[in-house]
Specification:
20% strand; globular; 6 helices
């Protein structure tokens, strides 16, 4: 193991979050992508009331009750409920994961999230922009170029400090892998690595991921984007206070191994080896930017990745 690599062990619940971000090889190495194209828009839409309820379930009622709620329409997100505390709750779709995430077009993804006022002002505008462009039929390359132009023209805001995201809904669907969900919180930083957070270290509960991509090789233009890290921390309860599923002392026992994939996380030649659907016992390259999303989000990792969106905003 080189000094640019570090072995980490992640709890299985947290691995479900990260699975949305980095549970599979990048597209260039996977000849058969599960979701190569966007599905019909109807598959991404929800009943309006159901979407409002799912969005609010992302955070404890003390936070989400007075939050604004936005819902997805055929042309983008719109405000369904005007809140009073500055927070915004919403349900992200798979395309809020890294641009090269294999579940980017997964129509099953429903990532409930509540974000605080700084995140609503400085992170959510990127979600609006991305969603509107994709739903208008633009390609990923065109969306990336449009977002970069908007950043250069200062039409999109710089990240504000103290941005926080709650993703604690027991009804979210973050990824096809593992248990599909896992309660967690996310924090956004312009840092290029997770050193100040102790992220991606052995037995650390903190995972640092790249907001923009899994591998810069997929979309090289993303390397010129402002650095943005998402820090994910798994929690033990759902937003209603009930306990999340218990975890084995051996993280690997909580997920099913489906083979091993080796792929770059940050565009370097270093690679990560792990059972598909798990980040337990993974070797993660650390070259200034600790990257895995979604994924997740979103990751949850985003997308967690989706996922983290995994799933990430």
């Amino acid at each position: 193991m080189t000094r640019n690599q570090i072995r980490i062990t992640l709890l299985s619940g947290f691995a479900l979050v990260a699975a949305l971000i980095a549970s599979r090889p990048v597209a260039a190495q996977d000849a058969k992508e599960p979701y190569p194209n966007m599905a019909p828009i109807e598959q991404y839409l929800m009943d309006r009331d159901a979407e409002i309820a799912l969005a609010r379930s992302a955070a404890p009622d003390a936070i989400s009750h007075d939050a604004s709620v936005i819902v997805l329409t055929r042309h983008g997100y719109e405000t369904a409920v005007q809140g009073k505390n500055g927070w915004v709750c919403w349900v992200g779709r798979g395309w809020m994961a890294m641009f090269d995430h294999p579940e980017f077009w997964n129509p099953k993804v429903r990532a409930a999230e509540c974000i605080n006022p700084p995140a609503a002002r400085s992170v959510l505008p990127y979600a609006y922009k991305r969603t509107e462009l994709l739903l208008a039929g633009h390609s990923k390359q065109e969306v990336i170029a449009a977002i970069k132009a908007a950043i250069d023209k200062k039409e999109l805001p710089a990240l504000e400090p103290r941005t926080v995201s709650y993703m604690m809904s027991k009804d979210s669907y973050l990824t096809d892998y593992g248990g599909h969900n896992g309660p967690h919180m996310m924090f956004y930083e312009t840092a290029k690595d997770g050193a100040a957070w102790g992220a991606n270290l052995a037995n650390s509960p903190v995972l640092a991921v790249n907001y923009w991509y899994i591998s810069a090789q997929s979309y090289p233009q993303l390397k010129s984007f402002p650095p943005l890290s998402v820090f994910l921390v798994g929690v033990t309860k759902w937003s209603d206070g009930t306990p999340a599923p218990s975890m084995s002392k051996d993280p690997a026992a909580n997920v099913k191994s489906r083979g091993t994939g080796d792929y770059s996380l940050d565009g370097s030649q270093s690679s990560i080896g792990l059972p598909s659907g798990s980040l337990s016992h993974a070797k993660v390259p650390i070259e200034g930017y600790s990257s895995v999303f979604s994924i997740a989000t979103p990751l949850l990792l985003r997308w967690l990745m989706t996922s983290f969106m995994f799933f990430t905003v």
